[in-house]
Amino acid sequence: VRQQSQITSFFSLG
Amino acid sequence: MLELRLLQGGLLKKVLEAMRELVTDANFDCSRSGCSLQAMDSSHVALVALLLRSDGFDHFRCDRNRSMGMNLNHVAKLLRCAGNDDIVTLKADDDGDTVTFMFESPKQDKIADFEMKLMDIQSEHLGIPEAEYQAIVKMPSQEFARICRDLSTIGDTVVISVTKEGVKFSTKGDIGSANIVCRQNTTVDKPEESTVIEMKDPVSLTFALRYLISFTKATPLSNTVTVSMSSDLPMVVEYKIADMGYIRYYLAPKIDE
What is the ipTM metric for this complex? Predict the structure, then answer.
């Protein structure tokens, strides 16, 4: 099963 | 004082239609270099980044950097009151909490102004690093929209694979499965009808189709779309906005548990 990842786990705040 | 004038008001309508399904509230950040917007969808799976450079406007005045919070559905509704050929001007005072949209008919015989309250939106700004992508596919935007729509009749997710053979879009669902392969095709008469594949390494990623379908609301902005993919990064779907900038959508992939 593939899970949906989130944008925030690839790009950092700032 | 902020004053942005665009002879092609219809362009602004298209820009709003391209974002409002994905994002409800967003800040328009204006500076001397232009207007930009960055916002995530509510589930933080997709991000939209808009750039409209100041030199693409017919008149652009921005005395002080401004971040103007707006409900995109409200802006889209307002812009529907403008004719496609109307000249649209946005005006805001430096310290005001409203923005005024002025619509002028091409013959200048009808002038309307709509004032809208600005919102205070706390949004997280993400740093998007420059990246080298393993594969970049440029194709007709209508073709990309058609593929996403057609595959959604079968499944909820799409596997996009780029190899030397071309780009393959695959899906599976309760009723069956589907594959659509597009090969590189640069022999057509018009460059906007060609499919160009730049591949450093083969790449295969899985995405939720409903986000891609939201992205294709930008199809009226450009004849072509560019899809960039790397195995460890969100995909980028970019529509150029002629002479002004771009709208880019970033989509996080589905990954193995």
Answer: 0.95
